[in-house]
Structures are given as structure tokens and as C-alpha cells.
Amino acid sequence: MTVEAKKRGKGREAASGMTRDQLLTAWRSMLLIRRFEEKAGQLYGMGLIGGFCHLYIGQEAVVVGIQAALEEGDQVITSYRDHGHMLATGMQARGVMAELTGRATGYSHGKGGSMHMFSKERNFFGGHGIVGAQVSLGTGLAFANHYRGNDRVGVTYFGEGASNQGQVYESFNLAALMKLPCIYVIENNKYGMGTSVERASASRDLSKNAAAWGVPGVQVDGMDVEATWEAAKIAVAWCRAGKGPYLMELKTYRYRGHSMSDPAKYRTREEVQKMRSERDCIEHARHRLEAMGVGEADFKAIDEEVKAVVQEAADFAQASPEPDAAELWTDVLVEG
Amino acid sequence: MATEILMPALSPTMTEGKLARWLKSVGDDIRAGDVIAEIETDKATMEVEAVDEGRLARILVPEGTEGVAVNTPIAVIGADGEAAKPAAASAPASAPAAAPAAAPASPPASQPGPTVAAAVRAGGPAGAAEKEWGPTRPLSVREALRDAMAAEMRADERVFLMGEEVAQYQGAYKISQGLLEEFGPRRVIDTPITEHGFTGMAVGAALNGLRPIVEFMTFNFAMQAMDQIINSAAKTLYMSGGQMGCPIVFRGPNGAASRVGAQHSQCYASWYAHCPGLKVVAPWSAADAKGLLRAAIRDPNPVIVLENEILYGHSHECPVAEDFVLPIGKAKVERPGTQVTIVAFSIMVGVALAAAEALAEQGISAEVINLRSLRPLDTATIVESVRKTNRLVTVEEGWPYAGIGAEVVMQIVEHAFDWLDAPPARVHGVDVPLPYAANLEKLALPQPAWVVDAVKKLF
Q1: Is residue B309 annotated as a catalytic residue, yes or no?
Q2: Where is pLDDT greater, at B95 or A300?
Q3: Distance from the B194 Cα atom to the nearest Cα atom in chain A, whole angstroms
Q4: Cα–Cα dist A24/A6, whole Å
């Protein structure tokens, strides 16, 4: 196995793949995540969401592009910055928002919160709060598929900060050794909390971080949903063909702080503003769609529809009851 | 000058072995470093290298002899005529020369530290007498564990074993002997030395519907994987509102072995028993081992099986019934008695039984309870016993502070305080990292005499 560390999507013209309908669907998904996260931020400010709340705003193209390359039955696991992943796997906005607000109708009946939601039905395995832990767990998802001899692939998302955890490399080794169908996706948003990637990793190309085990890696413009999708298709095909794991580094950016309580003093306002105005994934996709003939009315209609979904989710969450006190004692162990 | 070659100890816990084969014959010249014989223990076959030079004068133990005790002379090397070699220390026997029994140390005083709140909910009511399983045969704990895994792997395709040296090496402690042959490398999986990674991988596989058995070469190494065991395996069901369970077994030797030093000699019972979302069992006998491990593998929850290296070679009567299994959460009264309840688990059950025997000779009737399960704890059985005997002594190998003994005592304080005729007492490993020196190690781990002492102070 050779290492192919190609650069993909560097030049935006290189991304050519999606049809108008595919791109429009992706645009809607990204918009849904953005509006959802904006609403979550708002509810947090109102005290309706507590604890840690990590918003995905800015990074939407990563999960939407990659999910677009997956098939029904493929499995996904990620860290605590997980709202976008849940929406992208098809989990309902209302169930996610209800969980954020700690209600009985949430995906975890209010017992998980922002960082801990799961959906067996949508093959979403969480929602994990310990940085890097989901990388070994995701390797295990792939192990189970390999053990069963099916052709499902597992996608394990983690940040560039997590990529410095020892178990990430233990996982690369195990996956390469056992040829597990696992796509490792490093969402490099440049900052692990307040520490820039340059200050945290001596590696300047994270896509090569598994090269020692012969795992192919690719660096992708994660602000470009089409480039992400194109690259993900290659990774999915690789894994589905039984060739072992694949590493993707998605260059992306989060506009908000690490969590709601992060004042983000470690970067300049100008830096954030520049990314927002010049590299925004939703704007970029919109320009592409305009070139394909999508008109203002179409965008507006989708925007209205998405806003309605998000508002309904917020209303549903606030109208839902808190979990019954008896829930405190349930689900500690599987009974029987 | 003749030099005796002694039967070497080839592992910390080896006391005897089989002299499988002589590779040299009488009359052969031997140089230091020559392989002269092969020794089989219950774990491995090892080669014996000569440390002395000379001519093999006599073979004292013929090949094929079983049960040769460590330090038994097995051959004699004679000086080879010209240069008489000094008959210095011969075989590389680590002579654990039975140190003259020091006056039994009295049990270390328990720290008057704060007691933990009872995090473990009391077990169910004391159930019916243990089910009768019919005929038994002698079985070692080692075989019992292997048989339990093999039976469950035959019954359920989703069950597999992974860990360091479990497959080709047949297990670092030979627990998985024969499993690779029967089930193949897909289901008996050697991992790299990567506890954190492979534990996380196994937990992920369990979340995805498989039923992994993870062998830790010892539980000391599981500290590398603690985050995955607690944060991922134990908590996910709750955090997912009951959607995503984690049916997984973590097993391996726990506690002190013999002279392996502080980093390899820790009891993790109270660490794991502390955590909701886990079940924790600690078998003592072969029947415990087989019955509890089978139950653990079938359980839909993460179960920690704390084994003991020294017990692996011990044999007990074990039911032969195909479907033999033990319930998790149920203690066993190993020896009925009337005047004091001694509660122990794992290797300390043997210590407690020895103490009960000694106490009987002194006219004190002790009831010995083998906990078997540490979480859930069978509080009902202990309570029932204490209400009868009115005295309680707990015995554990681990440290006292926030230990299992502390929890058992608290349960009795909560549930049977008025029945107590004396303050409950704890016997436990001393509150220090385990020392290496033979005499110090012995002073650090509970002996039957400590238990006898603790009991007598209650009268």
C-alpha cells in the first residue's frame, strides 16, 4: 500500500462534481445546521441550554460533504461538537434541540445533553466528550463491520486537537493492521480550544499522520462541500473495497468560540471576518448554484423552510417536559 | 567438586513443574549457556540453560517427571578433570526459601478515615439456596475460565476474545489455551500492546452489536484504558437514554501475584465497583470462575471479571453440567458458622476459610461468605448472616481506604446495626505500594493469622 497525499480542492475550480440538485440538497443541509446552531446559541444565551455547548458554525461543509458520499447503513461517530453531524445523519432537529434543553423528548431523554446524543436508527454513535476517545470507538465500529463481513464503512470525525492523543495512533495502527473499513476525518479548524495547530502539533500536514502505517491520507478544502464530497467518495470506495483505513484532513474553520463560554481572544476579529467573508461554505455553494441557474426565489424558499424547521424545533424543545424524576434511575444497566 | 543443578522457578508464581526432557546425557560436556533440559509449567514450556560448566555426572530426576518442586536437585555436574570449577551458586532458582514464619503480624489498624456514602444499592433479598448442578469433577480455575469462554463462543457468533498474546501464544497465563485452534484468528485476536486503543476499539465493537471479551494481561495495564472502560463502556447506555448498551467483558488477573512489585500488584476491586454502569465479579473457585464468566459474557452490560494469577493453578470441584452458570449479584456461604461472619472475595476466600478452620480449633464458629460479585453486592446475604452471628470481619487484599471492606461494613451499619455485638473489623492489604522483598511482601498481604486475630478481638 502506498501513501497518496494528494491535495484536493485547493483550487475551487477543481471541484466540479455535484449536480444542481445534489448541491442544492447540500446547501440546504449546511443552512439547516447553521440556522440550528444560531438558534442553539440564542437559547443558550437565554439560559435554556446549559453546560457545554460547542457550535459547528463555519464547518458545515465538512460533515455535509462527507455524509453525501456515504450510503444508508454506514456509521458515524464524532466528538462533542456534534450537532451538525446529527442533523447531517438525518436525526430530527426537534429531538436534538430537546436534548440540548434537557427535555424528556430529547434523543437521550435529557440524560446526555449537547455532547451525548445517539441514534441507532440513523447509525449515529455519538457524541463523545473525552477528546480523542471516539477515535478508538470508531475503529471498533469498523471492526464490527469487518467481523461481520459486511461492506459498511465507519466515519470517525475528530478535531486536529484530538489528533495529538496517543490512542489516535494506536487506532491507526490497529485499523491498518486489521484492514478495518474506517475513514478517519480530521476536522482541522485550526484551534484546539485556544491553542493553534502550529503550537500543538509538529506535523505540518496532518493527512500524513498515519503514513507510517501505510494509511493513505488526503488534504481537502473543508470549506468547499463539493471538494469534500469528491474526496470522501474516494475514501469510501477505498474502505468499501476492503483496502483498510483512510485518513482525510479537512481544512476548515469555526466562526464561534470553542464553546459558548470561550471569548476567543487567541485569534483576531479580522481573521474570523476574513474567513467568513471570503471562505464561507454556504456562500460559496450559493455562488456555484447561482451559476447553475438557481434563483433568489429558490434560495429564499429553502431559507424559509429551514427557519421553520428550526423554529419548530425550538418551540418543541421548550414545550417539552423535563424528564420524569424516575428517569434518574433508569438506563444505568440493561435489565434482565 | 560436584555442583547440583536445581529445579528453577520460571515464573513468579511457579512452585513446581514437569521435567519434560533432558537435552544432555550423562557424560556430556556442558558449557554455560547450553540448553540442558525443558521444563513445563502449567503456563509454558521453558528451556533450562546451564550456568555452570563441567561434565553431566548424574541425572537425579528423569525426564517425564511431573510435580518437581522448585529448588529440587535435578542433576549433578562433575568437575571435568583438569580445572575443577568452584561449586558456586548453581541454578537460577529464585529461592523463595520459606522464610521462617514470622510471628503473625496483627492486622493493621484501619484508618479512621471518612467512610464513603453507599453508592451501591443493596442487592435483592437473600435468594433461595444455590441451585443444585449435579455431578462435579476437579477443574483448575485456568481451565474453568477457558471452558467458559469456549462454551459461550460456541453458543454465540458475536462473542470473540481479544488481547495481548491470547491467540498464538495461547495466553500469557495460558487461559486461552486451545481457543485459537477451535475458533480461528477471526475470533481469537492478538492485539499489539496498546491497551487504550484496543479497549476503545472493543467498546466500539460492543456498541455496534458484538460481544467482545477483552483480556488484560493484568488489570494493572487496564489503567491505560480506564477512560474507555468508565467513560465509554459504563456510561453510554445512560447517556443515550437507554439506546446504546455495551455488552462487553473485561477480564484478567487482578491483585498481587508473587514478588512482582508495586506496579504489577494492585487490587482494582473498589475502583471498578465504585462505578454505576459496570458489574464487577471476583471468582475464587473453579466453579465461580466458570459460572461467573459465562454469566458475564451473556450479560448485556459491561462486566469486569477480576481474576487472580495465583488461583489459576488451583483446582476445585466444578459442576460438569453443560448449562452450568452462576448468577451475578449472588454471594455464596462457603462455610456455615454461628459466631462471626467473615466476608471475603477472590483469593482472600481461601485465607478466610483457613482462618475459620483455625478458629474452629479454638472454639469459635465462623461463617465465611464468598462475595463472588462486588457490584451488585449481595447485601442481603451478608445482612442475614450478621443478624445470626452478630459480628463482622471483612477480608480483602486491596488497600483499606474506600475499599470493598469499607463498603461492606457500611452496608451492615445501615442494615444490621442493631444486631452487631462488636464494631465490625477490616482485614486488608497494608496501605502501602506492595514491596518486592519476600519478607516485606508477606507482611503486606493478609494472612489467615490476621483474620484469626481480628475475629478474636471481637469477643
Answers
A1: no
A2: A300
A3: 6
A4: 27
Question: CB contact, 8 Å: A141 with chain B?
Answer: yes
* pLDDT confidence bin for B128, thresholds 50/70/90: low
Of A108, A118, A136, the CB nearest to B204: A136
Residues ≥6 apart with Cβ < 8 Å to A135: A156, A158, A162, A165, A167, A168, A171, A184, B200
> Rounded distance, CA A176 to CA A163, Å?
17
Contact A57, A37 (CB under 8 A): yes
The backbone region for B40, taken as left when phi is positive above 0, alpha when psi lies in -120 to 50, beta otherwise, is: beta
Nearest to B406 by CA among B422, B390, B426: B426
Residues A107-132 have a mean pLDDT of: 96
User: pLDDT confidence of B232, banded at 50, 70, 90?
Assistant: very high
The one-letter code for the residue type at B82 is E
Indicate whether B210 pLDDT > 90.
yes
CA distance B269 to chain A (A): 19
Is B195 a residue of the active site?
A: yes
Q: What is the mean pLDDT of chain A?
A: 94
| Distance in angstroms (rounded) separating the CA atoms of residues B217 and B172 | 7
Distance CA A286, CA A296 (A): 10
- The reported pTM is 0.86
Gap from B119 CA to chain A (nearest CA, Å): 13
pLDDT at B374 over 70: yes
Exactly one of B143, B152, B164, B264 is catalytic; which is it? B264
Radius of gyration of chain B (CA): 24
Q: What is the DSSP string of A137-153?
A: HHHHHHHHHHHHT----
Q: Which residue of B has its CA nearest to A128?
A: B232
Best of B208, B275, B278 to substitute, by most chain A Cβ atoms within 10 angstroms, is B208
Q: Which residues contact B312 (CB under 8 A, 6 or more apart)?
A: B42, B140, B141, B142, B145, B173, B174, B175, B253
Q: Does the structure's ipTM exceed the value 0.85? A: yes
pLDDT score, position A261 = 84
Is residue A11 scored above 80 in pLDDT? Answer: no
Which stretch of DSSP H or E encloses residue A76?
Answer: strand A75-78
Range ranked top by mean pLDDT from A9-13, B75-79, B269-273: B269-273
Query: Over chain B, what is the mean pLDDT?
Result: 89
Q: Hey, are the CB atoms on B197 and A170 less than 8 Å from each other?
A: yes
Chain B contact set for A177 (CB, 8 A)? 192
Residue of B190, B223, B243 to mutate, interface with A, max A Cβ within 10 Å:
B243
Whether residue B104 is predicted with pLDDT greater than 70 in this model: the reply is no
Task: Count CB atoms within 10 A of the CB of residue B25.
Answer: 8
Q: In 3D, which of B56, B48, B2, B12 has the Cα closest to residue B30?
A: B56
Residue A41 near residue A256 (C-beta atoms within 8 A): yes
Best B240, B281, B328 residue to mutate vs chain A (most A CBs within 10 Å): B240
* Domains defined for chain A, CATH in brackets: 2-195+203-318 (3.40.50.970)
Query: CB-based contact (8 Å) between A107 and chain B?
Result: yes
Reference A58, options A263, A229, A273; nearest CA is A273
Residue A152: predicted pLDDT: 97
